[in-house]
Specification:
Elements: E1 10-12, E2 17-18, E3 23-26, H1 29-37, E4 48-50, E5 55-56, E6 61-63, E7 67-68, E8 73-74, E9 79-80, E10 85-86, E11 91-92, E12 97-98, E13 103-104, E14 109-110, E15 113-114, E16 119-120, E17 125-126, E18 129-131, E19 150-151, E20 156-157, E21 162-164, E22 168-169, E23 174-175, E24 180-181, E25 189-192, E26 196-199, H2 209-217
Parallel strand pairs: 1-4, 2-5, 3-6, 4-7, 5-8, 6-9, 7-10, 8-11, 9-12, 10-13, 11-14, 12-15, 13-16, 14-17, 15-18, 16-19, 17-20, 18-21, 19-22, 20-23, 21-24, 23-25
Antiparallel strand pairs: 25-26
Amino acid sequence: MNVRSLYAAVRVDDSAVVGEHCVLGYPKEDRIRGEQLKPGSVLVGEPVAIGARCVIGNHVVIHEGVRVSNDCVIDDRVRVGYNSSIGDRTRIAYGAYLCDRVSIGEDACVAGFVCDGTRIGDRSTVMGELVHEYSQPHKGWWEVDEEPPVIDVDSVVGYGARVVGAVRIGPRSYVAAGAVVTKDVPPEHVATGVNVHTPADRWTGRKLQDLLRHWMSARGR
């Protein structure tokens, strides 16, 4: 079977740049399986759209139904799963793995692993892992659709941090590098260790003071 016959249509703006050895419009697994079982029966997949002035690096895989807005950068060796959307001026950093149906706002920066259905707000930075609880491994891979994390606007998930399950990281909150989060982080808090949440106005660490002052001045944006 020639899988390329199942690729979705791709619309790339004339001003966008696409690097070497990229795959755009790769089909969903269920469409591949359908074609294997009954050749010629599978419908055309949802198109991919790459906006104006985007830069797509090398060895990038973008699945069907993905929408990349204007002025985005997708670094080398990134995977973007089907029906995901990426807002204006967002950067997806080297080697990031975005699962399916991920929604990322504008002016964000995302690296690491992002599980199915995750929502990441405007101006947020994610350098850690956003994962499902994976509490029902006895069921089939496609039988379970767990609730994903939500990262609100102006928030940070530091390098090596892990946000697990259907938790929300509130606006203007900071998850420190290496932290583990399994409970909601309220707005304007700093999360450290395992579910240790400190209000931003009580945080005494010097390194975050400039960022916290910036966030406080930008309230209501």
